[in-house]
């Protein structure tokens, strides 16, 4: 039967805790495997549903549905404060944006339940990597017709331009976007009706749909975004980049499944002011770092 998909534990099997890193549990401790047999009697491990029982859905519902929020509030607040101080130290720009719809990132990561999820490596909460934000804003600038030379100056050369270019860094650095407070999770379902069709077996309404459950971040989650200059002459460009970021988050969305409305975000001035006041009490931060596009 090959190797067992779970670790062997001495005594009680570990379980996720309220203050623990839920991402580690999600990535390492899926226990919905079962042994199945082929027609010739060969045994193998599988996670496919059987007898109207879907182990993937059961596992997600068991550990994630009833959790009101994930992550530790004190650690998240500390991370937010550090990120703001970093941006201010480099005369960058930061802003708080709130999701209007569900948000999901990391669906393409390999996982037994078929859809992965991106967890912050130390905070254990959903987040958006800076590389993803950069790609989103870069794509948006081309959508609105920004000159290619300026795009390359701000974001660096893309894959097609890197041939013969010794340096690929642009003048703006995008930092990871993290939640401002402990976010809530939610389950969603996609139901592909026309999977695995072939030319001699075309798609049709007579096919049996296979619901696939996946994990998302609930709406009304606040994320802190930050950008800093990588060159001394980039400061004048930051306000324009933040404007593009605002437009891209609202019209295109961030993360996965944006074509069906996921990941839409808008600036949250009240949360922005809240972070600003807290920072002023802590270190007396002042300046224009948090200037948001109107």
Describe the structure.
With 294 residues, the protein is of the alpha+beta class. The chain has one domain (71-283). It is 31% helix and 15% strand. The chain contains 7 helices and 9 strands, in the order H-E-E-H-H-E-H-H-E-E-E-E-E-H-E-H. It has helices at 22-28, 55-65, 73-89, 130-143, 148-155, 235-252, 269-283; strands at 34-37, 43-46, 93-99, 172-174, 178-179, 185-190, 212-217, 222-229, 265-267. A hairpin with a 5-residue loop joins strand 1 (34-37) and strand 2. Helix 4 (130-143) packs across helix 6. The N and C termini lie far apart (61 Å).
Strand content: 5-15%
Total beta-strand segments: 9
Total number of distinct structural domains: 1
Order of helices and strands: HEEHHEHHEEEEEHEH
Radius of gyration: 22 Å
Distance between the termini: 61 Å
Q: What spatial form do the alpha-carbon principal axes imply?
A: globular
Uncertain segments: 285-290
Whole-number average pLDDT? 82
Distinct helical segment count: 7
Largest sheet: 5 strands, antiparallel
The structural class is alpha+beta
State the helical fraction: 25-40%
SSE arrangement:
Elements: H1 22-28, E1 34-37, E2 43-46, H2 55-65, H3 73-89, E3 93-99, H4 130-143, H5 148-155, E4 172-174, E5 178-179, E6 185-190, E7 212-217, E8 222-229, H6 235-252, E9 265-267, H7 269-283
Antiparallel strand pairs: 1-2, 3-8, 3-9, 4-8, 5-8, 6-7
Helix pairs in contact: 4-6
């Amino acid at each position: 039967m090959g190797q067992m998909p779970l670790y062997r534990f001495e005594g009680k099997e570990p379980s996720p805790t309220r203050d623990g890193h839920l991402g580690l549990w999600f990535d390492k401790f899926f226990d919905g495997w079962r042994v199945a047999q082929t027609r010739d009697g060969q045994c193998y491990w599988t996670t496919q549903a059987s007898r109207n029982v879907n182990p993937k859905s059961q596992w997600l519902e068991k550990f994630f549905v009833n959790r009101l929020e994930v992550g530790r509030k004190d650690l998240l607040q500390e991370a937010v404060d550090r990120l703001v101080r970093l941006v201010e130290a480099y005369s960058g720009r930061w802003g708080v944006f709130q999701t209007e719809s569900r948000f999901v990132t990391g669906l393409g990561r390999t996982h037994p339940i078929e859809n992965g999820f991106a967890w912050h490596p130390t905070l254990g909460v959903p987040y958006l990597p800076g590389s993803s934000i950069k790609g989103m804003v870069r794509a948006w600038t081309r959508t609105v017709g920004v000159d290619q030379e300026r795009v390359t100056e701000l974001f660096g050369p893309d894959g097609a331009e890197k041939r013969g270019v010794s340096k690929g860094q642009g003048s703006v650095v995008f930092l990871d976007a993290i939640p401002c407070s402990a976010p809530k999770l939610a389950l969603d379902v996609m139901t592909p009706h026309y999977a695995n069709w072939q030319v001699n077996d075309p798609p049709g309404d007579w096919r049996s749909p296979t619901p696939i459950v996946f994990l998302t971040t609930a709406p009304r989650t606040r994320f802190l975004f930050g950008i800093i200059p990588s060159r001394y002459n980039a400061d004048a460009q930051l306000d324009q980049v933040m404007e593009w970021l605002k437009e891209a988050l609202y019209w295109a969305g961030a993360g996965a499944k944006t074509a069906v409305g996921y990941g839409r975000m808008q600036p949250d001035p009240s949360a922005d002011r809240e972070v600003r006041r807290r920072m002023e009490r802590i270190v007396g931060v002042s300046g224009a770092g948090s200037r948001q596009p109107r």
